[in-house]
Amino acid sequence: METISVVVVDDHQIVRDGLVALLGALDGVTVVGSAADGREALHVVAEAEPDVVVMDVSMPHLDGIEATRFLLGRRPQLRVLMLTMNEDDDTVLAAIRAGACGYLLKGAGAGEVHRAITSAAAGQMVFGASMAGRIATLLARGTAPAAAVPFPELSDRERTVLQMIATGRSNGEIAAELHLSDKTVRNAVSAIYAKLEVAGRAEAIVEARDAGLR
């Protein structure tokens, strides 16, 4: 069996270190990196090129759902497995719609996590025993509300750039952190201004923060 390379993303250091230790002890699994938030995960994944990312949902700077959208936009073959305490229906569906291949709660045992990573790497959808029935019902119903997405007129990349603008990042810092060219970021910023009908960066920051992006 080929070794599965994994990156762990969680903003709580104790949890992150525990996961790294746990996963590193599993047969056939090698932890090749870790990150403290979604934004740092973009760097780590770009450098480590893992098979699977084990991702928390609620994190500062860039949450797990937005980070998943961005990562899969750049590497569609990547497998992202959510491992979180958050189990509300909207968050679960938002994660699936972002492209996550699975959703486990942090109470899962080592064996369950091992099976989930192996299944995710094999291209399967993975849901913990406590989640599977609920998710099947939600998907079959097809009417459950998705988590509200701010500024639906923006592309995923533009929304990510706007979120980083709201944190006070300059265009150069955004380009470096997202591994984009300065021109690509400038074009995204111009598109954001046009779509939000704002005059400049200050107004864009106000709009973004009013919508909860920060």
TrEMBL record:
<keyword id="KW-0597">Phosphoprotein</keyword>
<feature type="domain" description="Response regulatory">
    <location>
        <begin position="5"/>
        <end position="121"/>
    </location>
</feature>
<feature type="modified residue" description="4-aspartylphosphate">
    <location>
        <position position="56"/>
    </location>
</feature>
<dbReference type="InterPro" id="IPR039420">
    <property type="entry name" value="WalR-like"/>
</dbReference>
<protein>
    <submittedName>
        <fullName>Response regulator transcription factor</fullName>
    </submittedName>
</protein>
<dbReference type="InterPro" id="IPR016032">
    <property type="entry name" value="Sig_transdc_resp-reg_C-effctor"/>
</dbReference>
<feature type="domain" description="HTH luxR-type">
    <location>
        <begin position="147"/>
        <end position="212"/>
    </location>
</feature>
<keyword id="KW-0238">DNA-binding</keyword>
<dbReference type="InterPro" id="IPR011006">
    <property type="entry name" value="CheY-like_superfamily"/>
</dbReference>
<dbReference type="InterPro" id="IPR000792">
    <property type="entry name" value="Tscrpt_reg_LuxR_C"/>
</dbReference>
<dbReference type="InterPro" id="IPR001789">
    <property type="entry name" value="Sig_transdc_resp-reg_receiver"/>
</dbReference>
<dbReference type="InterPro" id="IPR058245">
    <property type="entry name" value="NreC/VraR/RcsB-like_REC"/>
</dbReference>
<dbReference type="Pfam" id="PF00196">
    <property type="entry name" value="GerE"/>
</dbReference>
<dbReference type="Pfam" id="PF00072">
    <property type="entry name" value="Response_reg"/>
</dbReference>
